[in-house]
Structures are given as C-alpha cells and as structure tokens.
Design a protein that fits this description.
This protein is 45% helix and 15% strand. The longest helix is centred in the middle third of the chain and has 24 residues. The chain is elongated and about 100 Å long. The two termini are 43 Å apart.
C-alpha cells in the first residue's frame, strides 16, 4: 500500500515562510490600523506634533508625508499606506494624513465582514461601487466660487488658509497665505512649475520677518578677497549668465613639459594668462554689470571685475541660475564668443542685502519674471523646517485650486454629506452589499470625528449634531474648532479644493481594496542575502557553512 501514499511536494526553498487565510487578512488590517493610530492625532487645526529622531537629526512635524517617511515601516502590507501618502503628496500636495486615516477606517469596517466569512472580493466590489457613487456626488456638490463673482485671488487665499490652519504656523496663516498665492500667480500659467519658487531659510528673527521677493534671491556664494571691492547695487543692469570657468588652472601633479629653452616655458605661461584675459575683456566689452557663473570665478577674475566696477558670483547653483534666467530673460552661455544684448538679462534693481547673519543677492523688478523667492525666518531650525513643509503644502493647494477652481466645505462637512447620501443610496440595494455600503458611509465620518477628538471636544456629540444638520439639508455644516459646535464651513471660508477630496477618497479606497485582496504572503528568508551571496561567489569563503544565518520573521 506504500505506493498509494501521496508524496510530499516541496515547492519553496528551505527557510521560506508563508502566511495565509482569514487570520492573515486580519493581520494586515491590524498593521494598517497601527500606522493610522500614529497619524490620527495630527489631523486638523488642533492636531498634535510628532518628534522623530534618527541618529543625530531631530524632526518635529505634524505633516503626514514627513512622519510616514521617517517611520521606516517594514510591514509589507502597511507599506501600501506609505505609497498612497506619497502619491497624494505628489499629486495634490496636501491631505496625506486624511488619505491614511480613511484607508485605515475602510479596512476597520471591512474587518468585521472578513471575520464573519464574507468573501473579500464581495467587499472589494461593494467598496468600489461606493467609491464611484461618492465621487459622482462630490462632483455635483463642488462649488465653483470664481463663477459666483468671487475674486480668484480671494478664493486661492481662503484655500491656502485652510491648508495652513492645521500647521505649526496657523497663527500666521493670513500672512503666509497671501505669500503663497502671490508666489504661485507669478509662475508660468502653462505648467505652474513649483520648482521655480525658491524657498530660502535664514535662522534668527521672527517668523513675520519672512520676505516674499517678486524675482530671485539667493545666498552669496564663495568669493575671493577682491569681491569686497565690487559694487553691490545696480539700477537696470545687464546680466550675463555663464557656464564657463574663469579661473587659472593649477598644473596637474607629475605633469611633464619638455623644453629646450626656459623662454619656451614663459611662453606657455603667457599663453594661459592671455586666454583668461581675453575672456575677461570680452565680458567687460559686452557692457554687463553683473556676471553669474555656475563654474568657479577665480581671484584674478574677481579682482579684474572689481577694477571695472562689475559684480561677479561663481559657483552659483544650477537651479538658482535657471531661475535668474527665467526672471531676467537671460540665456546661459557656454562660450564667450558672442555676448550680445539678446542673450543678456536685465532687471530694475540688483542689490546685495544682509538678511540675519547671511548676505543675499536680490534681482527685483523683472518685467517678465516667472519665478519668485520666499525667505523664511524663525528662531529654531526645526521650526523653520516645519514652516517650509507647511508652505510647500499650501503652494500645492493653491496650484491645484488654480487649475481646478471647484471647492468644497472643509471641517468634515463634505465627508458628512457624502456619508448621508451613501446611506440613503444603500437602502435601495437589496443584496448584502447594502450593509457594506453602510459601513463605507460610516467610515467617512472618521474625519469629523477625529477633528473633534483632536480639538478636545466630545466627538460623539459633535458627529450627532452634524448628522442632524445634514439630515435637514444643511450640506456644508462641519466642525467648528473654536467652540466645539457645528457651523457652515463654506460661509466661514473653510474651503478645500474638490480635487483634494476626490484624490484622497479614491486613493484610500484602492489601498483598502489592494490589502483586502491579499490572501497569502510568501517570504524567502534568504532573499535579503541574495546580493551578498552573489558577491561572495567570486571569493570563496573558507568558513562557509560553519554558521547559519538567522531566519527573519514577517512583521
């Protein structure tokens, strides 16, 4: 009878680990909820900050993308939340915390159905149907304020203020919101490239001493002694932008020159000096008063320009040189053969100014400027870094609001209205997906609930008030952070781009569906050592086989 015994099939390598079944799905859901628990308290205007230190660096932030990047999450399913947070940040620029909390809540509501034996594909199908219904309704609810007679700049300002309200600089949101709107409006309307907005950070002073420059400002580059003799201010100067080295090259080590007469060596030296002087004379003759180069400008050239009342700066970062070109209309030159007026830039005023302990070069009054600069001030380095992250989110929100001018009420108003509508729709469905749609609708309430909780209010009482208001047709009522009541957020100018909410809901739904669709995880314990083993094949290890490596577990 031994021939009837079914042989064991060894499919995976020895040391591989597998996890599958309902318990595995629950395990993945729990891992995602653990990530959400970290971020939940950072949501909203009264959200708390997280202090994260890695090595010698310390980061204080309530920005979801920053926190989730610094956590170094290793769980394979929980990494999906990292991916959607990054996607939300790159596509919209804000709402990273919202998308993670929504995805986690969708999974939490699905967890009960999985434990009761409902097939994950049934839940996934119902979730995708619910997402489609919600997104269609959101499109209908969105309000185009520009068509209501509102000034576009005012609409953008309110959207920027709402984005900054949950940040560390919320008390100065009026000040920075105007700065963000002016910066985005200065860009090229075809692509709105935010890389053309320079953000400089100067420690010291008050945050209200931050400066917006309609043009370009960058930190003074390395310079030689003759630099101090150069003029530091010009009115309507011509500007030459170069990618040329204006420096005498040192001889290479062990260089060898065979000559028969010492005069020949002098002729070589004279030729080198003649080359550099010809370059400098060409620049002087073109009539430019400001010379910027991406490559070094040596001490000889610096002194030469000082003698001719010309300002120069070498080793200018490429990004700054590109921004100066965009602002002044100049073209970066790789040779000095033809420095005519067509390739030179100009501005109304160039000056070097002291900002805190640093010196900055300012190019202002550029008629066709498609770039701008924000110089941030602050007492602590961590505060300035968080201000930078906050402004970057606000800049992205203003950009999206300019491209898609539809807005919705913030403060959890749109989530409550979508939840109410989806509940009504679910009552018209007669199969088991009715309950799943109802749970999806309940999951949307997590945003106003968490906003109220983070502000120290009774979340249950606030959500009940919102349900009552929305059931009576008050679609834009959301959480009033000031006193714990509810208010019409659209009337109180708490506006968010509709694009932001659409992206967050769709990304969170897809992430939840992706995690629910995973029924088995297979991990090869030796996969992480594959690269090391391949490298060791070239040099045989005489001690190979004497010690066995540890087997990592799925966390």
């Amino acid at each position: 009878m031994s021939h009837l015994v079914r042989p064991t099939i060894l499919l995976l390598k020895d040391g591989s680990e597998t996890a599958q079944g309902t318990s595995h799905v629950i395990h993945n859901v729990n891992a995602c909820q653990a990530v959400s628990q970290i971020l939940r308290t950072t949501l909203g205007p009264r959200g708390m900050d997280k202090l994260i230190y890695k090595g010698n660096s310390v980061t204080i932030s309530n920005d979801g993308r920053t926190i989730i990047d610094l956590l170094d999450i290793v769980h394979p399913a929980a990494k999906t939340l990292v991916d959607i947070a990054r996607a939300q940040d790159s596509q919209v620029g804000d709402g990273t915390t919202t998308v993670v909390i929504l995805a986690s809540e969708f999974l939490k509501q699905a967890k009960t159905f999985v434990e009761d034996g409902v097939h994950p594909q049934t839940i996934i199908g119902a979730y995708r149907k619910a997402c489609s219904i919600v997104l269609d309704k959101l499109t209908d609810l969105a309000v185009d304020k520009s068509k209501d007679g509102k000034d576009l700049g005012l609409v953008l300002k309110y959207c920027a203020q709402t984005a900054l309200q949950s940040k560390l600089v919320s008390t100065h949101r009026d000040f920075f919101a105007k700065m963000c709107v002016d910066a985005v409006l200065s860009l090229d309307r075809e692509n709105f490239d935010l890389r053309m907005i320079g953000i400089e950070k100067v420690p010291g002073g008050s945050v209200t001493e931050s400066i917006f420059v309609q043009g370009v400002a960058f930190k003074k580059t390395f310079s030689y002694a003759g630099f101090e003799q150069q003029p530091k201010k010009f009115a309507k100067p011509f500007i030459v932008l170069l990618n040329v080295e204006l420096e005498l090259k040192a001889e290479k080590e062990n260089a060898e020159i065979r000559i028969k007469d010492p005069a020949e060596y002098q002729s070589i030296v004279d030729a080198e000096w003649k080359i550099i002087y010809n370059k400098l004379e060409a620049i002087v003759k073109c009539g430019a008063k400001v010379v910027l180069s991406r490559l070094p400008i040596g001490d000889l050239a610096t002194q030469y320009f000082a003698d001719h009342d010309i300002f120069c700066a070498g080793r200018v970062p490429e990004a700054q040189l590109r921004r100066v070109a965009a602002a002044t209309g100049g073209i970066v030159q790789t040779s000095l053969a033809d420095l005519n007026k067509e390739v030179q830039g100009t501005c109304d005023l160039f000056e070097e100014r002291q900002i805190g302990a640093e010196r900055y070069n300012f190019f202002t009054g550029c008629s066709n400027a498609k770039t701008s600069t924000i110089i941030l001030r602050g007492g602590a380095e961590q505060f300035i870094e968080e201000t930078h992250r906050s402004l970057w989110d606000a800049l992205n929100i203003v950009k999206r609001s300019l491209q898609h001018q539809q807005v919705v009420g913030g403060g959890g108003a749109i989530e409550m209205e979508l939840s109410r509508y989806l509940r009504d729709v679910s009552k018209q469905i007669k199969d088991k997906s009715q309950m799943i749609l109802g749970c999806y609708a309940k999951a949307l309430e997590v945003i106003p609930r968490q906003l109220a909780h983070n502000a120290g209010f009774d979340a249950t009482d606030v959500v009940n008030q919102l349900r009552f208001k929305h059931a009576n047709g008050n679609r834009w009522f959301g959480v009033n952070i000031e006193d714990g009541s509810v208010c019409d957020t659209l009337e109180h100018f708490v506006w968010e781009p509709a694009m932001n909410k659409k992206s967050a809901i769709s990304a969170a739904t897809e992430a939840a569906c992706t995690i629910l669709a995973i029924d088995e995880t297979i991990k090869n314990a030796k996969a992480q050592d594959a690269a090391g083993q391949q490298a060791n094949r070239a040099v045989p290890n005489p001690y190979a086989g004497q010690a066995a490596g540890g087997r990592p577990s799925i966390r």
